[in-house]
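Hi U.,

Before I forget, here's the chain from the pilot set. I'm dumping it here mostly so it's searchable later in email.
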Amino acid sequence: MTDKVLIYSRFPKSMMVRFAERFELLDTGGKPAHEVFSADELSGIRAMLTAGGTPLGPEAMDEFPKLGAIVCYGTGYDGVDLKAAASRNIAVGHSPGANAASVADIAMTLMLATTRRILVADQYVRSGDWAESKQSPMMRPQVGMPGRRIGVYGMGEIGRKIAARCAAFESEVGYFSRTRYDLPYRYFPSLEALVDWCSVLMIAVRAGGETQHVVNGDILRRLGADGYVVNISRGSVIDEKALVAALSDKTIAGAGLDVYEKEPHAPDALTALPNVVFAPHIGGHTVESHVAMQNCVLANLTAFFEGKPLPYAVKSA
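Structure:
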């Protein structure tokens, strides 16, 4: 009999093809499971696949009395209540580092697009202003990468790849994380110290209660009028209201964002601002990253149904 897997979050069907070859999928389409499937169908569910940011608390877990594994598609697992899962003997897996290179690339893309005002430059050409030699204050020279101080907040797999890419651009790199590592970058003992030093803050920290709105008005003020913030982690890390205020009154120079507090909706107050570059949470959205993430999912699910420990289990803090 084919093992059954509940697809708890909404995923494009194209991303589920490899899993369907191995397992019987019960796809909720992102709707509450009991609205799509009968209680009898759900009673035997032992494993589910979810997006890491999808809320999955104790009440949801209790809907599946035989649930033994929650496998997150991607690196993140911030939506899963790990304590609730542990108390119910539910293993939680993810895809650590599988999309790190792709996300680091988006971080660099957003930083360059923001600091070099690529969207403004694009419009300058499209509008014909360049051809007509029209002057624009937005086209004045900007600070380049060599010698620029880049602060990386979070030094996991993604943070390390961002740091390496920044160093290749001849920038100075500093970082703050819970752990100090043996790395060729300057370590700062606090986020405040890091933003006092840097001119670009790259947010690559894992989301959670301790990082909720940690990049607040004070942090943005410390970053300064020539500072930029780039967020490729989770939207919850930044206080969006404080960010809108800082961008509106020129407390900081600009921002590059791939993630938002309430996706897929970026607030109008934010999207109306000209000094922000947006992406629709596509950091890990490359062919190579999806193959790597799917490999981790398949390995986790296969191991679970074979009665083995998950090879890519979430490690407790």
